[in-house]
Amino acid sequence: MEQTVDVVVEGGKATAAPPIGPALGPLGVNIQGIVDKINEMTGEMKGIKVPVKVIVDTATKEFRIEVGKPPASQLILKELGIEKGSALAAKDRVGDLTPEQVKRIAKAKFGSDDQASVRQIEGTCRSMGVTIGEGKVTEEERRKAEEDKKHVMEEEKEAEKKESGAEAESGEEAPEGGEEQGEKAGKGE
């Protein structure tokens, strides 16, 4: 009987720590051997999160590893050399790719740089605040994006405060109403 363990690891940096070790431990396999094989197979994808499937034959303890394609967003971030996309993708851009880079990413992700594959990458770029063929992001754009990001984070914190305040208020009133309902139910009302 085969059991499959799905994990996402950083290319070339898998360890026996969670999520791999605890998932494979109960199967009684050589965890370090599996980790070494994963690192060997994903070594060229350093810095990119990669989905990996470990299929273990529980009777023989033999295993095979299938390395999936990394998410398009990870390939885009790696190509640009940045850590994150834009918090406000429709408003701020964090990077710009050339059409050739987009084709290269499409080929890496889908095995093809046909129009449909390229359009999928372009859509992911838009959702991340990455433009195509518009030129490098200026320092002024970077500053504006940082300011906008701070503003959004402040608004989110403010909304959380209001929400937790409203929950506290409604939380104090709910038990009183609940007791009243309970009393009525007890009296058959």
How are the SSEs placed, and which strands pair?
Layout: E1 2-10, H1 20-24, H2 31-42, E2 49-57, E3 63-67, H3 72-80, E4 95-97, H4 99-110, H5 115-128, E5 130-132, H6 139-186
Parallel strand pairs: 4-5
Antiparallel strand pairs: 1-2, 2-3
Describe this structure in words.
The protein has two domains: about 1-65, Ribosomal protein L11, N-terminal domain (2-Layer Sandwich); about 70-170, Orthogonal Bundle (Arc Repressor Mutant, subunit A). The protein is flat, with a radius of gyration of 25 Å. The protein is an alpha+beta fold and about 190 residues long. Helix 3 runs antiparallel to helix 4. The strands form two sheets. A three-stranded antiparallel sheet has the order 1-2-3. It has a two-stranded parallel sheet with strand order 4-5. A hairpin with a 5-residue loop joins strand 2 and strand 3. It contains six helices and five strands; from the N terminus they run E-H-H-E-E-H-E-H-H-E-H.
Q: What labels describe this entry?
A:
189 residues; alpha+beta; Ribosomal protein L11, N-terminal domain; Arc Repressor Mutant, subunit A; three-stranded antiparallel sheet; two-stranded parallel ribbon; flat; disordered C terminus
- Could you name the CATH homologous superfamily of the largest domain? Ribosomal protein L11/L12, C-terminal domain
Order of helices and strands: EHHEEHEHHEH
Percent in helix:
40-55%
Catalogue the unreliable spans.
173-189
Q: Profile the largest sheet.
A: 3 strands, antiparallel
Whole-number radius of gyration? 25 Å
* Strand order across the largest sheet: 1-2-3
Note the overall shape: flat
Mean pLDDT: 85
The termini sit apart by: 60 Å
Assembly type = single chain
How many separate helices?
A: 6
CATH architecture assignment of the largest domain: Orthogonal Bundle
| Count of domains | 2
